[in-house]
Amino acid sequence: MRRREFVRPAVASTAIAPIDAAAQSNPPTIGYFSNRSAEAETPVLSAFLDELQKSGFVVGRNVAIEYRFSDGDRDRLQTLATELVGRQVAVLVAIEHGAVEGTEAQT
Which residue, 34, 61, 67, 91, has most beta carbons within 10 Å? Predict the structure, then answer.
């Protein structure tokens, strides 16, 4: 699967609930996390940012992004996800199939 084919649905899902960022004093924040390093994530992240911009979201203007990378330590994923949820992000984006494992909601 090509990266853009994977990234487009993720970006499109952020637009399901339209956000009127101009009317907000603080732009909505996307929580982005991966079990890879920031350097390894660069190609996917670049595609994600390109698709966000095509959808009208510009980082620093009408959307913010909080990044978290576990650098291959899958045991840190739940902590990173919990941290992002605590920041009250509007959307949580987990990249890679394995990045979602271990992040189930605690009841």
Answer: 34
